[in-house]
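Hi support team,

I'm opening this ticket because the web form for multi-chain structure prediction keeps timing out on my end. I have pasted the exact lines I submitted so you can reproduce it. The total is 398 residues across two entries, so I didn't expect it to be a heavy job. Is there a limit I'm missing, or should I split the entries? Thanks in advance, R.K.
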Amino acid sequence: MTGKTMRQPDLFSVSDAFASDMMTLSDERLLEEVREDGQDPQSIAREMRALITAASLEHGRSRLLAARQALDRTRQARSGENVVQLPLDRKQQILSQFAANDGQLRSRLTMAARQGVGASEREIDDILRDLRELGAIDDDGNIR
Amino acid sequence: MSSRTPAEQFLIQLGVQSPKDIDVEAIAWTTGAEVRFAELDSCEARIIGFGDRAVITVEARSIPARQRFSIAHELGHWRYHRGRSFVCRSEDIGIRDPGPLNPERVADAYAADLLLPAYLFEPAAAKLKRTSFEAVEELREQFSTSRSATALRLVTLGPEPAILVCHSPRGRRWFRAGPAVPSRWFPRDEIDAESAALDVLHGAMPKSPRTLIGADAWFDRFDADRYEIFEQSVRAGKDEVLTFLTFKSREMLE
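Hello R.K., no limit was hit. The queue was backed up. Here is the completed structure from your submission:
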């Protein structure tokens, strides 16, 4: 965790003023100033685009890397967790409650199974564990 | 430059610049979905979502390429069908479904774009010059995808106009034609006795070489006997054969 960076009022005032000055200039005037300084606006635009693209790619890659690390940490932490033990008819009752509920709860729920033909008991266990971990039900299977 | 699909835009946002960057489990995590592996009895994969978080569970015994496709397929549901509940039965999956808005087709298309994005696939396929099963093997090695998904992508984004046809002993199961192939070239239901596809289907060889054959072996049209086409077949699964048909004559594509 990094500490809070101290704000430096003088420096920020200068940069704010600079930004404000830039924003009030018309596009034509800005391009004129660049040319007066002996620079090529097209070339500057290309450089800026390349910089933004590189920064954007780097940000995306960092995000994906952080996701992989978080996933690995979560998997390690989860090993050995117990599944809630409930009778089969109670488990089926919980799932049917989800199927029957057509109100606000249903709209928050997403369920899809690829090439599905009807869940076995161990799959029902896993589904209930998922629902519990997602906060949809409590430890006793009651819908939150 | 062609327009990017939502899956491709997402990959670009995540800095994906090569096929090996497509870490589909990490991609899922960035969307609030955790991928788990378990032995499943009744389905290939499922997603359980509540609010903005989800768990995707994938059959642990499947081959990695199939697992990746299943994860990407469930991510398609997560993107497009949030707040909906349904079961995708096997007859809903794949190429035979009825319309483009069918949830399974939507999820399949998203999966294909995520695992085989055009901005990476097209240049890789162009380097291989031909639409062949040798090219498919090279591409699936790079993208970690299944043969059929890669072959389907090659038909759409490959270096030459092509048709991919799937036959079982009971006849043609499905086919997909590339965008440059005129719709008049509609493959026959049955495999012609002259075609090496028949030998592949009956197990005489796992794959046939790319060879020329009369177009009338594949197309039941009055003018088909004027042309020759290339065919190449490979055995797929227990009782299916996939065949690439590519065109020798430009006239057939006009």
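A quick check on our side: The two ends of chain A are 34 Å apart (CA to CA). Let us know if the file doesn't open in your viewer.
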